[in-house]
């Protein structure tokens, strides 16, 4: 029902940045190689995500907006080996229940479809474009849930949250060409040439990127790669610390700490390095079904992973000082 969708929207869609995150994750799951994000008025007016992914067959379009309808998991056991970013089937119905949604999609084989949904009700469904891919335009977010609107922060803050999410998604997927445009101004563009350094340069600037050093480490359980800044080049915010597990960016206090531990006593109190740490591990050791926003995950060998991250960073920095 629309009401239960609105309730679950409270968990999935907190703010414009969550809409961006869910839509872009869907585009990534659809194997897109190009994803363009266009935002107006910090997402308070509209958020549009255009991809060149697999699209949705027109007879499946309405289903995609039904709660718990996911095409990504068919078996309960799949939950223990989730590879896709989405799997709960809640995002689209949640978003559509509290906004105006206009989706155009095509699988490139048959005639595409356009669907418009207003506050959870389908108001239009008709044949559309043939180009393979999907575009989703979300406007008037929270128009029917004024309490939610009240909890939003100043537009500049909402925009910085959007930017932060897109940055992390781009860092998690250097093989995808991303662009983020706000009120006609381009904030980020990545090439999609699978070059992590280029993505870092696009986000943190060329100068910072040139002062970062590559880290690499591998043991039977984990593979670590990424870039870290020298202890001198630090920021007063945790925002510049990105941890990616199996191409999914996560927020984990323990792993952030493992990174900082790797610096030993070299970091000043309250200063944080600019870091991107990307970890590859057996997906069965990772439980992503912890929280609807999927940023928290449970890792089976977390202590071992923490130690390995610290060690890898420590060794990298020691070599630098030779
Ligand atoms: P989930 O991602 O958890 O499966 P969503 O509500 O986010 O649930 O999306 C529902 C379904 O709609 C997805 O399982 C997928 O089949 C389809 N879908 C959504 N967005 C896209 C897209 N950009 N490209 C292709 N399919 C999509
Ligand atoms: Mg999804």
From TrEMBL:
Belongs to the DNA mismatch repair MutL/HexB family. It comes from the Bacteria. Residues 200-318 form the DNA mismatch repair protein S5 domain. One of its GO terms (cellular component) is mismatch repair complex. Signal peptide: none annotated. The keyword DNA repair applies. This protein is involved in the repair of mismatches in DNA. It is required for dam-dependent methyl-directed DNA mismatch repair. May act as a 'molecular matchmaker', a protein that promotes the formation of a stable complex between two or more DNA-binding proteins in an ATP-dependent manner without itself being part of a final effector complex. Keywords: DNA damage, DNA repair. One of its GO terms (molecular function) is mismatched DNA binding. This is DNA mismatch repair protein MutL. Coiled coil: none annotated. The chain holds residues 9 to 330 of 640 of the full protein. GO terms for biological process: mismatch repair.
